[in-house]
Amino acid sequence: MLLLVVLCACQNEIFKNTPNNSADVIIYGGTSAAVTAAVQTVKMGKTVIVVSPDKHLGGLTSGGLGYTDTGNKAVIGGLAREFYHRVWQHYNTDEAWLWEKHSDYGNRGQGTVAMDGENRTMWIFEPSVAEQVMEDFVAENNIKVYRDEWLDRENGVVKEDGKIISIKTLSGKTYTGKIFIDATYEGDLMASAGVSYHVGRESNSVYNETWNGFQPEARHHKHWFMHDISPYKIPSDPNSGVLYGVSTENPGEIGAGDDKIQAYCFRMCMSRHPENRVPFPKPANYDTSKYELLLRSLEAGRPDFFEKFDAIPNKKTDTNNHGPFSSDFIGMNYDYPEASYERRQDIIQEHRDYQAGLLWFVANDPRLPEYVKTEMANWGLAKDEFTDNDNWPHQIYVREARRMIGEYVTTENDVLLKREVPQSVGMGSYAMDSHNVQRYITAEGFVQNEGDIGVKPPAPYAISLGSILPKKEECSNLLVPVCVSSSHIAFGSIRMEPVFMILGQSAAVVANLAIENNISVQDVSYNELKELLIEKGQILTLNQTKE
After folding, report:
1. Most buried by CB count within 10 Å: which residue of 63, 103, 129, 198?
2. Can you tell me the distance from the alpha carbon of 410 to that of 431, in angstroms, rounded to the nearest whole number?
C-alpha cells in the first residue's frame, strides 16, 4: 500500500513537470486576447499552451459585454473580425433565435446596429454565443488549455539573463517556453517578471496631457449628479455621518495624479422573457441604506436609470452602468490590481453583493417611483446564461489595473493624433472613456462623482509595437497585449475588447518572428512584422480601409 502511494505521488510530480508542459509560446490568461494570440501562434506553425486562471475563455467578451464598444469597425481586422463574422454566422440561423424572432429583434431597431450583412459581421451577441465561438477557435486549432491555473506570483517566474525560462502555478505545474505572453487583465505575469508598470492616474504633467489626473469639471457622459443632493444620512446634517460610498477625503488638485482607478462592475445579462428569467437574488448581507443616494437621485427627478439596458438577441440585455448611481461600485476597487488572490476574490464578492443588492432594491423597495418598479418587474437574470454561476457573470469588468511602462507609452497625444505613432501593430478608435473614479463631497456640501471622461479621437489612431513590449533590459521574451504601456486616459480608449483581440494576434506574430530568428521580441524587424500583419488581415493604417 505504501509503495502504491509513493508511486502515485511520483507520477503526479512527473505530470506536473512533464515535457508536454513545454511549448514555443506560453500564454498566461483566458481573455479574448489570449485566444487570438493562441490561434495565431498555431496558424504560424508554432506550439502553444494557454495557462488560464479562468475556467471560461473570452474574458469580458464572453462574460456579459455583448454590446460591443467598436468605434470605427473598419479598423477591426484579422482574427477579431473573424470572431464577429462567426457571431454573424450563428445568428444567421433560425436555431439561434430561441426567445424571439430574428425579424422582431430587427424591428426593435437593433438589427441594423448589430448586424452588418454587407460585411458579414455581427457586433452584438449573447455571452454564451461568444464563449462558444472562443471554444470553437480552441478546438479547431487543437490548442492545449490548462484552466483554473493560477500563477505563483511570489516564486513562480524563473528568469535567466533577462528572459523568462518558466512559470509555475499554485497547483505545482511548471510551464517552459521560448516566448511568454501576459494576456490577463491584471498583468500578473508582467509584474512577477519584474517589468515596470503603473497603477492609477498620472498627473497631466507626466506625459503632457490634458485629460489625465483629477478632473472635477469633466462631465462628458451622464454619470454625475445633476441635482444638489446631500451626502449625509440626515440631509444637510454633517453630524449625522455620510452615506455609504461617499468619501470624506480631499479629492485632489485639478490635473494631479493619484493611485485611484476607474470603477468596476459586472455587465449583467438580463431577460424580459417570462420563461427565461429568474428573479433577482437578495444578498444575505443586503442593506437598504447602501442605496439611499439612488433613491434621492430618483426623487430629485433623474429619469434615466434604464438607459443602458442595451438589447442583445433573444430578449436579453447587456446592462451597463448609467447615471450618477448605478452598477459601478465607485471607489471600492483601488487595491484590486496589487491585491492577493484572496483579497481580489473578496473584492469581487463585494462587487457582486453590491450589484445584486442594487437590483433587489430597484425591484422591491416600496419607496421607489412607480414607473421604476413597473419597468423592473419585466426583468430578471437570464436563465440560460452563466448556468454554472447562478446566472451571474463569471468575469468582473476590470476596466483597468496595472499598465506596463514599456518601450513606448501611448498617451492621449497618440489617441488625439497630435503626434505620429511609430510601428503600428493595430488601431483603436473608441473614445478615451474612463468611468468614475471617486465619489466625494464638493466644497458646497453636495455629493458628486469624478473621473468620468469621454473624449473622442478625430479619427482612428495607430497603436505602437512598443506599447506591447517591455523595456528590453527588463524582459526580452515577454509580450503584453492587454495591460499595455499607456497612460490612464489613453488606456480608456485602448481597453476595448476588439482592440485586445487585435493586439493579442499581433503579439503572437511578434513571438513567431522572435522564435524563428532566435532574437528578443524587441529586436524583431518591423518591416517584416508589418508585412506579416497585413497578410493576416490586420489594419495598421487608415489608408488600408480606403484601398
Report:
1. 63
2. 14
| Cross-strand bridge partners of residue 309 | 319
The cell for 410 is 501611448
Residue 277 CA, chain-centre distance (Å), reads 26
pLDDT at 152: 98
103 compared with 4, residue with greater pLDDT: 103
Collapse the DSSP code of 422 into the 3-class scheme (helix H, G, I; strand E, B; otherwise coil) and give the result: coil
What is the distance between the alpha carbons of residues 357 and 344, in angstroms, rounded to a whole number?
Answer: 20
> Kind of pairing, strands 316-319 and 438-441?
unpaired
Question: What mean pLDDT value characterizes the chain?
Answer: 94
Mean pLDDT of 278-301: 96
Cell of 510: 511578434
Residue 113 pLDDT:
58
Percentage of the residues of the chain whose pLDDT score is greater than 70:
94
DSSP H helical segments within 236-326, as ranges? Answer: 292-299
Per the CB < 8 A criterion, the answer to whether 289 and 365 are in contact is no
Q: What is the pLDDT of residue 107?
A: 59
H/E run at residue 498: helix 497-517
Compute and round to an integer the Cα radius of gyration of the chain. 24
| SS3 at position 221 | coil
